[in-house]
Amino acid sequence: MNSIQPVILWTDALIFALLLAVLVLVWLIRRQEHLLAPWRVVAQRPMAMGAALVLGAFVVIGLLDSLHYRAQLTDSPADAPQYSVEVLSVFDALTSELRSRQEKTYSAPLAMQLYAKEFVERDGATVRDYPRLQYGGAHLQRADERLSDITRRTLVGATQGGLASLLLFGLLAGWQVRRTRLAVGAWLAAWRQGSLNWPGRTVVLMVALLLMLGGALAQLASGYHVFGTDKVGQDVLYISLKSIRTGLVIGTLTTLVTLPLAIGFGITAGYFRGWVDDIIQYLYTVLNSIPGVLLIAAAVLIVQVYIESNPDIFDTAAARADIRLLALCLIMGVTSWTGLARLLRGESLKLRTLDYVEAARAFGVSNVRIISRHIFPNLFHLVLIAIVLDFSGLVLAEAVLSYIGVGVDPAMYSWGNMINGARLELAREPVVWWQLGAAFAFMFTLVLAANLFADGVRDAFDPRLGGRR
Amino acid sequence: MLAYILRRLLYAIPILIGVNLLTFTLFFVVNTPDDMARLQLGAKHVTPEAIDRWKVEHGYDKPLMLNAAATGSAQFTDTIFFKHSAAMFVFEFGKGDDGRNIGNEIRTRMGPSLAIALPVFVIGLLVNVSFALLMVFFRATYLDLWGVVLCVVLMSISGLFYIIAGQYFIAKLWNLLPISGFAGGIDGIRFILLPVLVGVVAGIGSGSRWYRTIFLEEIGKDYVRTARAKGLSEGRVLFRHVLKNGMIPILTGAVVVLPLLFMGSLITESFFGIPGLGSYTIDAIQAQDFAVVRAMVFLGSFLYIVGLILTDISYSWVDPRVRLQ
Question: Coil, strand, or helix at residue A56?
Answer without folding.
Answer: helix
